[in-house]
Design goal:
Layout: E1 2-6, E2 15-17, H1 18-25, E3 39-43, E4 50-52, H2 61-66, E5 73-75, H3 76-83, H4 97-101, E6 104-107, E7 110-114, H5 115-121, E8 130-134, E9 146-148, E10 153-157
Parallel strand pairs: 1-3
Antiparallel strand pairs: 2-4, 3-4, 5-7, 6-7, 8-10, 9-10
Length: 158
């Protein structure tokens, strides 16, 4: 078993959530630790484990095919660290303008954000690093590249 630590902006393409996989297959959530050549991953400081679909045991191929496709998603804690926002922006009842612009999924108690769709909606290349800040803290336009998300919030990129 090989455990990889994902960077905060690394999409979960080709991964499935271990918890979902274990619930659907009826096995222990630690079973992957004893499989030969399986690749697992998680984000730094996060507990959720994701399994590489291509390295799981062939006998579970049917289960893997019904697991949710996580392409483009990142774990919510990783998204918050990456963009510099507070987790409260990812809660609907808080009324954050950012919440309405994101595709957020709760899967077995793990909150995931579709970062790839967010990039696509803003027409940004995936190689850009992004951050969200109040517009008043940004420098003048030629010095800092920004996209206005609301009258108060802007997204910077470089």
């Amino acid at each position: 078993m090989e455990m990889q630590i994902l960077s905060n902006n690394q999409f979960l393409d080709n991964y499935i959530l271990n918890r979902e996989f274990c619930e659907l297959s009826g096995i222990s959530s630690n079973a992957y630790r004893f499989w030969k050549n399986v690749r697992a991953a998680k984000y730094d400081g996060c507990r959720a484990v994701f399994l590489d679909k291509k390295t799981t045991l062939p006998k579970y191929d049917k289960i893997i095919s019904i697991c949710r496709n996580l392409s483009g998603f990142v774990q919510s804690q990783a998204f918050c660290k990456y963009t510099g926002i507070a987790p409260s922006h990812l809660v609907e009842k808080n009324g954050s303008i950012l919440y309405k612009k994101l595709e957020i999924v709760d899967l077995y108690g793990i909150k995931l954000v579709n970062l790839k769709k967010f990039y696509d909606d803003l027409d940004l290349d995936y190689s850009y690093n992004i951050y969200v800040e109040k517009c008043k803290y940004f420098g003048p336009s030629p010095l800092e590249k920004k996209i206005k998300l609301s009258p108060e919030m802007c997204l910077g990129y470089y």
